[in-house]
Design a protein that fits this description.
single chain; alpha/beta; Dihydrodipicolinate Reductase, domain 2; 35% helix; TAT_signal; oxidoreductase; Glucose--fructose oxidoreductase
C-alpha cells in the first residue's frame, strides 16, 4: 500500500505495530511464499481452503464482463464445462481471449489460456457450446452457473438456473428492479442454493485493509466519503457505443461498417507482414473481427431485444434496431441501468462497506436518504441513459438513533459523559455520514475511486490499485502521486479490465499484493458450494447484494424524479432492504 508514515494521523509507532501484526507482515509472507494463485492469496487472506473437486460450471454470457470473469478463473476451484451466448463474437473471445489491446488480453485471457488448451478443437472437447442458455441448464454435468448477461435478463436466468438446481453467481447489479432482487433472494432461500453477486470489492485485499484502518480508529470519526467515476467519453468516442455488425446508417444516409473495415485491414496485414510476432497478432485480430462480423446474422428479437424509435428534444426521430439494442444495451433504460447500475453501484458498495465497518452488529449500513440529479448533458438522442449523475446520501453515523428527541438534545450545549441519559459527543445519536457520488462523461479527471474523511485523517483509494493515508489538515496543494501502470484497470465497454490477480512480485514484496477480487469471489463461491454450512456463505450474498441494488436503483429513481420536476429527494424505507417484505422503491414511488 502506498502509505506515507510521516503523514499518518496517529502515532507512527502505534500504527506500524497495528499494521504489521494484522496485515502487512502477513501479506509479505504470502508473497514470499509465492502464494499468489491456486489455494493462495484469497484462501490464506480470507480464510477459505482449496476444494478437493473443482465445481463444474457453465458461463452464461461471455461478452465483455463474462470474459473478464473467465480470465479470473482458477482451475483448481472451477471447471468450465459449458458456455452459452447468442453472439459468435463473444463465443470466439471466450475461447481465444480479447486481442484488441494488451490490457484487454490480460483481462480477458480466454479459456484456452486459462486451462492451457492448445487449440479450439481441444477446448471444445471439454466445453460444450450452447446458444440457448436453457439447454445449458438442462446439462446434468453443470453444477453451477456464472451469469454475465445484460442487466434486464439477470433475474430470469438466475431464477431458471435455481429452478434447475444450479448455484448462481450473477454479475452486478443483482437485478433490474428491487422486486426482482427479492424474488431471486427468496428463490435461493427456498431451494437452499448459493446465490452470489459480483461486487468484487468485498474480496479486494486493498479494500479490506482500508476497513481495518477504519476499525482501528486511524481516521478518527468518519463523517464524509467522496466517491466518483469520471470518464473522458465524448460523442464519437463512447466506449459504451460499440460498432454495429453489418454497418450503421449515419445522419447523412451513409453506411459505415467499422467491423468489416477492421476485418479487411487486418487481413491485408496478415498477408503482408513478415515479422512472426506481429503476424500472429494480426491473424488473431482478423479472426476476432471475422467472428464479430458474424453477429449480423443474429435475430435478437428471439432473445428479448426490440426494435423501437426514440425522439430528441427537437422532435426528431431515430430508429433503433434490436441488434443495436443488443450491442449497446448499457445505453437504454429498458435493458441496462445506466451509470448508477454500471458504475455507481461499485462506489456505493464501497462506501457502504466502509460505513458498515463502524457498526458493532456486523450488519450492512443502510442509507437514510438520497438527493440526486442528472441528465444527458453531452450526448444526443443516441441513448436514454444519463451521461452525468450527481448524488448525495445520508448514512447513519456511529451511535445514530432516530428515536432520540432531537429538540431536547439540540438544546444541550455541554454533554459530559458522566451525565446520566445524555450521550457524549462521540455517541451523538443525530450524527450522520454524508456520501457524495458523481459519475460523468466528457472529462476523466480524477478517474475513479473513493476518499474517506475522518476527524484524524483521510484515506484515498484510487482505481482499485493505490491507497494513500493523509493526516488531518494536510495542505490543499498536497498532491497524491498515482503510478501509471500499463497493467491497471481499463475502461472499454464495462467497469472492469486490467489487473485481475495479484500484482507483480517485485511490487507486492514491498507494498503488498493488489487484488481486485474477481478470482477470490469465484474461489469462495466454489468453496461454499463444496462446503455447505450456515457459516459458509459468499460475502455478497442476497441480502448484501440486494442492499446495494436498493441504494443504486433508488438513486436512479431520484434522478428520474428530478428530471420530471418532482424533486430528487427520497428517504429510504427500511422495509425496502427486507428480503421478506413486498415493499419496493419502484412501487412506493410510482
Amino acid at each position: 500500500m502506498n502509505l506515507k508514515p510521516e503523514e499518518l494521523a496517529v502515532g507512527k509507532e502505534n500504527f506500524n505495530e497495528a499494521l504489521g501484526v494484522n496485515r502487512r507482515d502477513f501479506l509479505k509472507g504470502v508473497v514470499a511464499a509465492g502464494a499468489v494463485s491456486g489455494a493462495g492469496l484469497g484462501a490464506m487472506y480470507f480464510g477459505y481452503s482449496k476444494v478437493k473437486d473443482p465445481v463444474r460450471i457453465g458461463v452464461i454470457g461471455t461478452g465483455d464482463e463474462g470474459s473478464v470473469l473467465i480470465g479470473a478463473l482458477n482451475p483448481e476451484y472451477v471447471d468450465v464445462v459449458a458456455i452459452s451466448d447468442i453472439r459468435p463474437y463473444n463465443i470466439h473471445r471466450a475461447f481465444h481471449g480479447d486481442h484488441s489491446s494488451p490490457a484487454a488480453l490480460e483481462a480477458r485471457q480466454g479459456l484456452m489460456s486459462v486451462y492451457d488448451w492448445k487449440t479450439e478443437d481441444e477446448a471444445k472437447k471439454h466445453v460444450k457450446v450452447y446458444t440457448d442458455y436453457k439447454e445449458l441448464l438442462a446439462d446434468p454435468n453443470v453444477e453451477a452457473v456464472i451469469c454475465a448477461l445484460p442487466l434486464f435478463i439477470h433475474k430470469q436466468v438466475a431464477m431458471d438456473a435455481m429452478a434447475a438446481g444450479k448455484h448462481v453467481l450473477t454479475e452486478k447489479l443483482m437485478a433490474h428492479t428491487v422486486k426482482q432482487c427479492k424474488e431471486m433472494a427468496r428463490m435461493a432461500e427456498e431451494q437452499d442454493l448459493y446465490l452470489a453477486t459480483g461486487h468484487q470489492r468485498h474480496y479486494s485485499v486493498l479494500y479490506d485493509n482500508a476497513v481495518n484502518l477504519i476499525q482501528w480508529g486511524v481516521l478518527g470519526e468518519i463523517h464524509h466519503i467522496r466517491a466518483q467515476w469520471h470518464r473522458g467519453n465524448l460523442p464519437g468516442g463512447d466506449s459504451w457505443q460499440q460498432p454495429i455488425p453489418g454497418g450503421e446508417k449515419l445522419a447523412d444516409g451513409k453506411i459505415v461498417d467499422q467491423i468489416k473495415s477492421g476485418m479487411n485491414a487486418f487481413k491485408k496485414r496478415v498477408d503482408t507482414e513478415t515479422d512472426p510476432t506481429r503476424r500472429a497478432h494480426y491473424k488473431a485480430m482478423y479472426a476476432q473481427y471475422a467472428a464479430w462480423n458474424e453477429d449480423q446474422k443474429i435475430d435478437p428479437t428471439k432473445y428479448g431485444y426490440e426494435d423501437f424509435t426514440i425522439r430528441n428534444r427537437q422532435g426528431g426521430e431515430r430508429q433503433i434496431s434490436a441488434l443495436e439494442e443488443l450491442c449497446r444495451w448499457r445505453l437504454w433504460d429498458r435493458t441496462g441501468g445506466g451509470l448508477m447500475a454500471e458504475l455507481g453501484s461499485h462506489q456505493l458498495d464501497a462506501a457502504s462497506i466502509f460505513i458498515s465497518a463502524l457498526r458493532k452488529d456486523g450488519k450492512k449500513a443502510h442509507p437514510l436518504a438520497v438527493h440526486a440529479t442528472g441528465g444527458r448533458h453531452i450526448f444526443g438522442y443516441d441513448r436514454d441513459a444519463d451521461d452525468h449523475v450527481y448524488c448525495m446520501f445520508e448514512f447513519p453515523g456511529s451511535g445514530y438513533d432516530p428515536s432520540f428527541d432531537v429538540g431536547y438534545y439540540d438544546k444541550v450545549t455541554n454533554w459530559p459523559p458522566e451525565k446520566k441519559g445524555v450521550p457524549s459527543y462521540q455517541e451523538d445519536p443525530h450524527k450522520k455520514v454524508v456520501v457524495t457520488y458523481s459519475s460523468i462523461n466528457g472529462n476523466g479527471f480524477g478517474g475513479y475511486g473513493e476518499v474517506v474523511m475522518g476527524t484524524k485523517g483521510s484515506l484515498v483509494l484510487h482505481n482499485e490499485k493505490d491507497v494513500a493515508l493523509y493526516k488531518n489538515g494536510v495542505s490543499a496543494d498536497t498532491k497524491l502521486s498515482v503510478k501509471k501502470d500499463s497493467d491497471g484497470p481499463t475502461m472499454d465497454t464495462q467497469a472492469s479490465g486490467g489487473q485481475t490477480k495479484a500484482a507483480s512480485l517485485a511490487n507486492a514484496a514491498s507494498q503488498g499484493p493488489v487484488s481486485r477480487g474477481y478470482t477470490e469471489e469465484i474461489e469462495h463461491w466454489a468453496y461454499c458450494i463444496r462446503n455447505p454450512a450456515p457459516e459458509n456463505k459468499p460475502k455478497c450474498h442476497p441480502e448484501v447484494a440486494m442492499g446495494d441494488a436498493v441504494i443504486a436503483l433508488t438513486a436512479r429513481l431520484a434522478i428520474q424524479r428530478s428530471n420530471q420536476g418532482k424533486g430528487g429527494y427520497i428517504p429510504f424505507k427500511e422495509e425496502w432492504f427486507d428480503v421478506h417484505s413486498d415493499a419496493t422503491p419502484e412501487n412506493d414511488l410510482a
